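Deliverable D4.2, example record:
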Amino acid sequence: MNLRQDSPTVLVVDDQDMLRLLMSKTLENNGFRVLSASNGAEALTCYRGAEPPVDLLVTDYSMPGMTGVELARECCALGSELSVLYISGSSPGDDLRADLADGNRAFLAKPFRQSDLLRRAKTLLEMRSEAVPSRSNHGSQLQRLSMER
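Output generated by the structure prediction step:
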């Protein structure tokens, strides 16, 4: 797939290989630039080295070693605005419910349809483009992606 320079960058993190691959392919096939990691430590390495920077973190809430909320907090502590989509097969815990109060966070329950993943990702990135003027070119890119599908 040919990616435009202004394609949003998504970091997909899940310890389940098949799900991570499915989410990555779904996003890539719909015009997103995708990085992936199988755990929090690997994700932080990807996040630090990402060029262009990561716009959206799609992370499993419950992973060995580091929860999705802990990962999101670590990424945000590095100094950039980040939208986060948490995915989980279980109900959100107190830490996740508190984090979801931030306007650029969302939750998607497993199992989910590919269309649900795409809709949530696009919604979060549209909210981000409205809030972060320097990255606002993603809004037009998202409109183009929506029109192509």
